[in-house]
């Protein structure tokens, strides 16, 4: 599957749907949920949001092909704001008040980043540590993020088949993203199935175009619209 939602994993245990079905099948206003762990609810179908904040985290954006294309494709879309952390904070001095205000204004927060050593680039971890603080994101009075959505939109260097017990990377991508899913739960957010692009550095031009189109289509569906061209 090209640019799929929640399709990351071992091909021996996951049936890969024909191109486009995963996104096309999600056109619905109903928000069903399924339990993936103690107290954790994850949307099984798409939910509509009025505003989306893309937290873009890539330390080398000008060397990026896939992530850069994704960002260029959605820049300027109504209802979407892009917050490039490495552009704003090259010295890692994060403006916590600014970041918290952006979060409060959004209904869905998408963390877009490459997978580095089975996790995210360093600045995203620092952003989590400083911005999602007690009294804002969790704890006494920390209800600012309650009811919002959280999603990872990620690229990997390895193939989908590598992420399974029989593969080179042992665990599925979804398992490696569990800290983000738990963060969503702890902050009262609803975790959406991740958008995953595998083998990012090996994509053909046609495959990349398809991924980019799928990402745009997914965001339009979140916003309650359709992509007509």
Uncertain runs are: 11-44
Structural class comes to alpha/beta
* Largest sheet descriptor: 7 strands, mixed
The geometry reads as globular
* Integer-rounded radius of gyration: 17 Å
Order of helix and strand elements from N to C terminus: EHEEEHEHHEHEHHEEH
Instruction: Give the helix proportion (percent range).
Output: 25-40%
Overall pLDDT metric:
84
Can you describe this structure?
With about 230 residues, the chain is of the alpha/beta class. It has 8 helices and 9 strands. It has helices at about 20-25, 65-75, 85-90, 95-105, 120-130, 175, 180-185, 205-220, and strands spanning about 5, 35, 40-45, 50-55, 80-85, 110-115, 150-155, 190, 195. The strands form 2 sheets. Strands 1, 4, 5, 6, 7, 8 and 9 form a 7-stranded mixed β-sheet that branches. Strands 2-3 form a two-stranded antiparallel ribbon. Helix 2 packs across helix 8. It is globular, with a radius of gyration of 17 Å. It starts with a strand and ends in a 7-residue tail after the last helix.
Keywords:
single chain; 229 residues; alpha/beta; two-stranded antiparallel sheet; 30% helix
Topology overview:
Blueprint: E1 4-5, H1 21-24, E2 33-37, E3 40-43, E4 52-56, H2 66-74, E5 80-84, H3 85-88, H4 96-105, E6 108-114, H5 122-131, E7 149-155, H6 173-176, H7 178-186, E8 190-191, E9 195-197, H8 205-222
In a few lines, what is going on in this structure?
The chain is α/β, with parallel strands linked by helices and 229 residues long.
